Amino acid sequence: MIRLLAISFLAISVLASCSLKTTKGLRQVSFTKSEVENPYFSNSEIDYVYKAKIDFYKKNFGGILIIKKIGPMNHRVVFTTEFGGKLFDFQFENDTFTKHFVIEDLDKKFVVNILKDDFKLLINESAEVLSVYESNGERIYKTQSNDDFNFYFLGGADETLQKIVSTSKTKEKVEIDFSIINENIAQIIAIKHNNIKLTIALEKFKKE
Amino acid sequence: MSASEIASFKKKVIATAQTTKSIKTDFVQFKHLDFLSDDVKTSGKMLFKSPNLVKWEYTNPYQYSVIFKEEQLLINDGGTKSKVDIGNSKLFKKLNQLIVNSVKGNMFSDTDFTVSYYKSPKYYKAVFVPNDKKIAAYIASFELLFNKDDAQVFEVKMVEPSQDFTRIIFSNRTLNSTINDSAFSN
Hints:
The complex is a heterodimer of chains A (208) and B (186).
Chain A: H1 2-18, E1 27-29, E2 35-37, E3 48-56, E4 59-71, E5 74-80, E6 86-93, E7 96-102, H2 109-123, E8 126-135, E9 138-145, E10 148-155, E11 160-167, E12 172-182, E13 185-193, E14 198-204
Antiparallel strand pairs in A: 1-8, 2-8, 3-4, 3-14, 4-5, 5-6, 6-7, 8-9, 9-10, 10-11, 11-12, 12-13, 13-14
Chain B: H1 3-19, E1 22-32, E2 40-49, E3 53-60, E4 64-69, E5 72-77, E6 80-85, H2 90-104, E7 113-119, E8 123-130, H3 133-136, E9 141-147, E10 153-159, E11 165-175
């Protein structure tokens, strides 16, 4: 009986791990790279400034997203209105999250946790590779963050980061798409949630 | 500034505000955050029509406009239009009133602020510090800089409790030209 239970648990967990769409039908390949990197917010000399449009359950909010690497493994992420008033001001240093400021209306655990997770995923510079998959010229690097898995999609000969998909063991949760990339800056970034109706669209300020 | 200087300065600002029926002006906005290498710069045009219609239109580096109309904010974010009711938000109403009054310069009768006055060879400066704790959580002070000759506001500075600030500098101002109400629809 116990053996039967163990087998069925095993079967369930195997089935469950197979149910991720992200890696469905993909071929696992051997790899040499131990770390996968996100270069888009890694230059401490650049002020990363984006116009942001947030769509939350059909409500639209605009603003300016400002990201700055202020030290090794240390980023400041500030969101302001178009008028310049701060909506939130976060700091990510190693695994320490600091909430410097959040306006009252947004200062709810549920909201802050979503924002914290999204921006941590966005700015995280490198992650240890667990396994690698391949499909149509893309290499997909599987990494782990606490209980979640983050899949980094790299494409082209120079292995440009095009997408990050964050999943639980069984479900896709968040996808970040990077497009129009030059000199390690993504001009367009889209953050899409699968389990809640939230999208964040970012467009880099143009140089004067 | 001495008491008599303050009195004559206030009189001048109020007189100017009363004769100002409309304002068209360009503006440049600088958002200063201490950790950034450069201030975040945006610019556009502002329209004001007496008594309380205001439109801020950002044109660079993106298209974004906000119209303050009655109890609503009409927003056009690069083609995405939305409305925000501010009727039941006391804080928002206060901020809206501040914006309208700061454009006109006439904020001296506002009991929600403690005002102090300064002068330089080129301008007068009025610094407004909020008495209300809720407003003080967002704005440490609000500074208006006035031209000495015509008592018009040429710069607004909002300082946050963190000491980060936003500066808006006006230029190419046209006073009392005809502006149709249709300019204030989304």
